[in-house]
Inverse folding.
């Protein structure tokens, strides 16, 4: 069995990239080898950071596989740097694999930009003429769908099938993947609900985002991605909205002094409490309480 070399990036979630290539190729009975071009820091909500592997290391990976195993099929995915593109082009020109499959995905399924417009033009100019088959699909219905399709095509080509036959079998394989609904969704909704429960329980003692992130055992950054994705608000805005609502209830329904209300909600001083309240409501707690009382008196008088 001739191995298949995939030259692409790494996906933390294994929904796409080299991890998905290896999984797909292995599922179909192929043998996958890799040269990693870029390492991503990402979740099911999107990509936070890239680390592009130095071009010399990419070249070394390709040479090692080519010299030792001579794969006849090469699948190419994410290339973000021109010097990396240069070493890939030179390797293809040197080793002459029978098939070169190019999966040109510019955007992730979450809308993250993976490569620049200039880089896309360079790929089209330098790499495209060396390819035997180009895959350019942007189906957002399942993360990494195009990636897996290209990997499946690579496997069938490695068995000696024609390009038409390989694409037909790859489409049938991908159809079964869609029917299984195997796309990774993460725990965003569950985590969001856990955050709301935690705020309801701890708002008297904590209003800091880091407190809730630590309590839920996630990073503050990931928590912010979740809340913005679901509600369009930052975690701090959600905490403050809940807190101000509870404070308003206290001011309207109890005879506690403003200072007592401040201490009840964990503020270090009345001045700090007043500053917080005024920032969100535009008036001080004392003015708010008086306004509500005056409105109540007006309604009673009319009655």
């Amino acid at each position: 069995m001739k191995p298949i070399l995939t030259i692409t990036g790494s996906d933390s979630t294994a929904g796409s990239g080299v991890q998905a290539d290896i999984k797909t190729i292995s599922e179909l009975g192929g043998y996958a080898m890799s040269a990693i071009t870029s390492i991503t820091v990402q979740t099911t909500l999107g990509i936070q950071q890239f680390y592009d592997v130095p071009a010399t290391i990419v070249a070394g990976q390709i040479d090692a596989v080519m010299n030792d195993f001579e794969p006849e099929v090469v699948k190419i995915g994410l290339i973000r740097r021109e010097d990396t593109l240069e070493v890939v082009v030179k390797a293809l020109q040197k080793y002459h694999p029978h098939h070169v499959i190019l999966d040109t995905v510019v955007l992730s399924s979450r809308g993250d930009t993976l490569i620049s417009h200039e880089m896309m033009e360079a790929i089209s100019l330098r790499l495209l003429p060396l390819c035997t088959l180009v895959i350019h699909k942007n189906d957002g219905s399942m993360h990494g769908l195009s990636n897996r399709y290209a990997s499946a095509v690579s496997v069938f080509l490695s068995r000696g099938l024609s390009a038409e036959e390989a694409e037909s079998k790859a489409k049938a394989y991908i159809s079964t993947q869609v029917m299984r609904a195997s796309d990774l969704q993460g725990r965003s909704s569950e985590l969001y609900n856990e955050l709301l429960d935690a705020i309801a329980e701890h708002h008297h003692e904590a209003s800091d985002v880091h407190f809730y992130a630590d309590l839920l055992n996630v990073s503050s950054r990931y928590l912010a991605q979740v809340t913005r994705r679901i509600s369009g608000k930052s975690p701090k805005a959600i905490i403050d909205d809940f807190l101000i609502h509870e404070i308003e209830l206290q001011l309207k329904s109890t005879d506690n002094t403003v200072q007592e209300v401040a201490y009840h909600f964990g503020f270090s001083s009345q001045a700090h409490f007043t500053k917080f309240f005024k920032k969100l409501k535009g008036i001080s707690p004392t003015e708010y309480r008086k306004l509500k009382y005056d409105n109540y008196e007006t309604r009673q008088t009319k009655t």
The mean pLDDT is 86. The first strand starts at residue 4 and ends at 10. The domain at 188-302 is CATH 1.10.10.60 (Arc Repressor Mutant, subunit A). The chain has two domains: 4-180, 188-302.
